[in-house]
Amino acid sequence: MATQIAAPPKARLIEVFSAIQGEGMNVGTRQIFIRFALCDLRCHFCDSAHTWSVPEVCQIEKTPGWRDFETHPNPVMLTDLLSWVERQNQPGLHDSISLTGGEPLLSAPFLVQFLPEVRSLTDLPIYLETGGHRPEQLSQLLPYLDSIGMDIKLPSVSGENRWQAHQEFLQLCGNSQLEVFVKIIISSQTNPAELEQAGELVASVNPAIPIFLQPVTALPGEVLVVVPAPDRVLEWQALMKRFVKQVRVIPQTHKMMNQL
Ligand code: SF4
């Protein structure tokens, strides 16, 4: 019987481009963004609903930062994505490569093959931006990552309840040697008891893991999403500092700078 050779996995992409990271630990640094299609969560505050499904074509920037996008049909070949990353990677320009979405861990079967190739191409650090709820897929990718920014979704703000998965996910991060931070979106709806629960969760893994509180960006006409009052933000930062050492408040700075 003939041996069946598995077809190489393909990526379902939204876009590839060069930009300034606007959130979390890497804020202000220059990254090559690889944005994967699909997400299995439905956060109330999501401003990336266009990533929930796979578009027919993806947008690929030709020159880093020029926004001179060309379109390619989805899904894309591993070798094509590799060549687009190589084209973006001009000497000295970027600080890291960001795997983002959507939920990039839904592309784990592709990433397991893609990331070792990226490693052989460049020594740029590889940063994973994730909802923090897919520990099984994370464990497959840990050998190829340098840093992880994971969300803890507060049910009162996001409508998602993923405590158990967040706990397992952060424990895996804590057991690794990788740099990790936690991002929590806060809004006027934030339940402080959930913030405490998140603080306890992070502290139980490692109180040295930084937490970034990110006031939600109001969406036009969206009643569920209201920016928190300034005094509440001060209160909640103080509350979180009872659990972990570093609690920083940073809004989405790329939107202030009119970046992608
Ligand atoms: S995890 Fe991100 S992309 Fe997915 S629904 Fe939530 S905010 Fe949107």
TrEMBL record:
Family matches, as InterPro entries: 7-CO-7-deazaguanine_synth-like, Aldolase_TIM, rSAM, rSAM_sf
Keyword Coiled coil among record annotations: no
Keywords: 4Fe-4S, Iron, Iron-sulfur, Lyase, Magnesium, Metal-binding, Queuosine biosynthesis, S-adenosyl-L-methionine
Residue stretches making up the Radical SAM core domain: 26-260
Enzyme Commission number, as recorded: 4.3.99.3
GO molecular function: 4 iron, 4 sulfur cluster binding; carbon-nitrogen lyase activity; magnesium ion binding; S-adenosyl-L-methionine binding
Binding residues annotated for Mg(2+), in chain numbering: S48
Enzyme class: lyase
Binding residues for S-adenosyl-L-methionine: F45, C46, D47, G102
Record carries keyword Hydrolase: no
Catalytic activity annotation: 6-carboxy-5,6,7,8-tetrahydropterin + H(+) = 7-carboxy-7-carbaguanine + NH4(+)
Gene Ontology process terms (BP): tRNA queuosine(34) biosynthetic process
Cofactor annotation remark: Binds 1 [4Fe-4S] cluster. The cluster is coordinated with 3 cysteines and an exchangeable S-adenosyl-L-methionine.
PROSITE patterns named among the record's database cross-references: RADICAL_SAM
Binding site for [4Fe-4S] cluster: C39, C43, C46
Binding site for substrate: I20, Q21, G22, R35, T100
Cofactor(s) in the UniProt record: Mg(2+); [4Fe-4S] cluster; S-adenosyl-L-methionine
Superkingdom of the source species: Bacteria
Pathway entry: Purine metabolism; 7-cyano-7-deazaguanine biosynthesis
Role description: Catalyzes the complex heterocyclic radical-mediated conversion of 6-carboxy-5,6,7,8-tetrahydropterin (CPH4) to 7-carboxy-7-deazaguanine (CDG), a step common to the biosynthetic pathways of all 7-deazapurine-containing compounds.
PANTHER family: 7-CARBOXY-7-DEAZAGUANINE SYNTHASE
Assembly description: Homodimer.
UniProt record similarity statement: Belongs to the radical SAM superfamily. 7-carboxy-7-deazaguanine synthase family.
Protein name: 7-carboxy-7-deazaguanine synthase
Organism the protein comes from: Aerosakkonema funiforme FACHB-1375
Encoding gene (name): queE
